[in-house]
Write a structure and sequence with these properties.
Layout: E1 4-8, H1 12-24, E2 28-32, H2 35-44, E3 49-53, H3 61-70, E4 77-81, H4 86-94, E5 99-102, H5 107-127, E6 130-133, E7 136-139, E8 144-147, E9 150-151, H6 156-167, E10 172-174, H7 175-183, H8 191-205, E11 215-218, E12 222-225
Parallel strand pairs: 1-2, 1-3, 3-4, 4-5
Antiparallel strand pairs: 6-7, 7-8, 8-9, 10-12, 11-12
Helix pairs in contact: 2-3, 6-7, 6-8
């Protein structure tokens, strides 16, 4: 079945180019030309992805994203920002956007981001309420982790690191990605804080923390979670 994408873009040339590109790639496409119309369609329709411009008439992309997330809508969102608007990217990710692309961009770059994001969101759906690896069971509804049936004492931050790893399993994850996802942009912790939390997490979930089988260090880059 075709993935369904909503493009919320007021620039007609950009909207047409995006619609044609996505349709060529086999997506079912809907287009909204202002924020209010975008929010209405995003609320009413079952969508796989939303491409959302920041600068929109009637309602900004930020406000659309914020309202969707506060109403519990978790459809993946890629925000489009103008070149140099670094603050837009930070704000967009803080209020729940999944990724951003800076204009001008190549359609191939956008599609690469889209495909990576859709893979992640399908993986999240597969994770469902519980995930198992080795003798570890992670229950996302209860925020519980057990090892060989024994409940582990895990802090909320350690749990969120583990959840992020599971959602990105098989991918190399940088320390900065973990800081952004788990600590948030406003807290500015040091990257060694990540390493300390990973060390504690390994003590709990690995059979031998000094020889980890699941949370692998990728030298000079970050970590990789393997099942």
């Amino acid at each position: 079945m075709n993935s369904k994408v909503l493009i919320v873009e007021d620039d007609q040339a950009m909207a047409v180019a995006l619609r044609d590109g996505f349709e060529y790639e086999g997506y079912a496409v809907q287009v909204a030309r202002d924020g209010a119309a975008g929010l209405k369609l995003a609320t009413e329709k079952e969508l796989d992805l939303i491409i959302l411009d920041v600068m929109l008439p009637k309602m900004s992309g930020f406000d659309v994203c914020k309202q969707l997330r506060s109403s519990g809508n978790s459809t993946p969102i890629i925000m489009l920002t103008a070149r140099g608007q670094e603050i837009d990217k930070v704000v967009g990710l803080k209020i729940g956007a999944d990724d951003y692309v800076t204009k001008p961009f190549s359609f191939m770059e956008l599609m690469a981001r889209v495909e990576a994001l859709l893979r992640r969101s399908h993986r999240r759906a597969e994770v469902a309420d519980e995930f198992h690896f080795g003798d570890i069971a992670v229950n996302f509804k209860k925020f519980e982790v057990t090892k060989a049936g024994t409940l582990l004492e895990i802090s909320p931050r350690e749990f969120n690191i583990l959840k992020y790893f599971i959602e990105h399993r098989g991918e190399v994850v940088t320390r900065d990605q973990l800081l952004d996802a788990v600590w948030g942009y406003g807290s500015f912790p040091l990257t060694r804080t990540v390493d300390m939390h990973i060390a504690k997490l390994r003590q709990k979930v690995e059979d031998t923390a000094s020889d980890p089988k699941h949370i692998i260090t990728v030298h000079r880059v970050g970590y990789k979670f393997v099942v």
